[in-house]
Amino acid sequence: MLTVAADIDVLARFGRALADPIRCRLLLALREAPAHPSDLAEQLGISRTRLSNHLACLRDCGLVVAVPVGRRTRYNLADARLGHALDDLRTAVVAVDADRHCANAADEGCC
């Protein structure tokens, strides 16, 4: 069993990852299927440099893993349970406050 401090650290890392819309989109895309960075950049409509920075953040948070496949790298969710957690969070928020939106997502105190 994790300690309270470890639990808080895990949740804070997950929260930091979800705090950015591009990282949310990346996690949701990887929930569907593992993918190569070039495919993810095209799917999300962002530059490979920008994508690389977000993937590095998600790796550092322990949410995705890079898997070498020949000369390329494929990204997967670090644990299949993360896909279920994303689904649970998404549906729980919609079920509770379907008509509520953050006034300014950039604000620290939002929601």
UniProtKB/TrEMBL annotation:
Q: Cross-referenced NCBIfam families, in alphabetical order?
A: HTH_metalloreg (NF033788)
Residue span(s) of domain HTH arsR-type: 3-100
* Protein's organism: Streptomyces spirodelae
Q: Mind telling me which CDD domains this protein's record contains?
A: HTH_ARSR
User: Entry's SUPFAM superfamilies?
Assistant: Winged helix' DNA-binding domain (SSF46785)
Q: Quote the Gene3D superfamilies the UniProt record gives.
A: Winged helix-like DNA-binding domain superfamily/Winged helix DNA-binding domain
Record-linked SMART domains: HTH_ARSR
> What's the protein called, per UniProt?
Winged helix-turn-helix transcriptional regulator
PANTHER family attached to this UniProt entry? HTH-TYPE TRANSCRIPTIONAL REGULATOR CMTR, TRANSCRIPTIONAL REGULATOR-RELATED
Superkingdom of source: Bacteria
InterPro entries registered for this protein in UniProt = ArsR-like_HTH, HTH_ArsR_DNA-bd_dom, HTH_Metal-responsive_Reg, WH-like_DNA-bd_sf, WH_DNA-bd_sf
